Amino acid sequence: MNAPVRSDALVFFGATGDLAYKMIFPALQAMIRHGHLDVPVIGVAKAGWNLDQLRARARESLEKHGGVDEGAFDKLVTLLRYVDGDYNDRKTFDALRDQIRGATHPIHYLAIPPKLFAVVVDHLGQSGCAQGARVIVEKPFGRDLASAKALNATLQAVFKEPDVFRIDHYLGKETVQNLVVLRFGNTFLEPIWNRSYVKSVQIVMAEAFGIRGRGALYDELGTIRDVVQNHLLQVVGLLAMEPPARAGHDAIRDQLVNVFRQITPLAPEDIVRGQFEGYLREPGVAPTSRTETFAALRLKIDSWRWAGVPFLIRTGKCLPVTTTEVLVELTRPPLPSYAPGPANHLRFRLSPELNIALGAQTKKPGEAMIGEPTELVLVAPPKADEMTAYERLLGDAMNGDPTLFSRLDAIEAAWAIVDPVLGAKAPTVQPYEPGSWGPAEADRLAVDAGGWLQPTASG
Question: Are residues 321 and 189 in the same domain?
Answer without folding.
Answer: yes
